[in-house]
Amino acid sequence: MKEFAQSLCSYSLAIAFFGLKEIDNMLTSAPRNDARAPAVEALDSLTSATTAQFGDTLADTYQAADRVQRALIGFVFDVVFPFVASEIHRRVRGNPQIVFVATPGEVSPAPAPLMISEHTDST
């Protein structure tokens, strides 16, 4: 029980310091050639480490809940901040070869780009 209490307190302290580091990461701008900001990378790393501790049932439940909450957040941002969505669409329009997909077993919250080839209808 003593070891559990010590580990729990260490974890709580680490999360508090992680929050401070995330504030620093958000205030520090990422170089333009980085695909993702340092704050996003750090959160993804923490999420992966946490979800690696789940069993199969809890991992499946987490993935389903994560997909729902990501869709809701995406919807809210599209409605509340339409200028952000239009900027993303403008950038994607410049490169129609990129389509973002999420695979069912994906733990990482960020979708991976999938390159597709252009095809012509011969009808």
Number of strands: 2
The amount of helix comes to: 55-70%
Strand order of the largest sheet: 1-2
Number of domains: 2
Main sheet properties: 2 strands, antiparallel
Question: What's this entry about, in short?
Answer:
By secondary structure, the chain is mainly alpha-helical. The protein has four helices and two strands, in the order ααααββ.
Structural account:
About 12% of the residues have low confidence. The protein has a two-stranded antiparallel ribbon. It has 123 residues and is mainly alpha-helical. The protein is built from four helices and two strands, in the order ααααββ. It is extended, with a radius of gyration of 19 Å. The protein starts with a helix and ends in an 8-residue tail after the last strand. It folds into two domains: 42 residues; 63 residues, no CATH class.
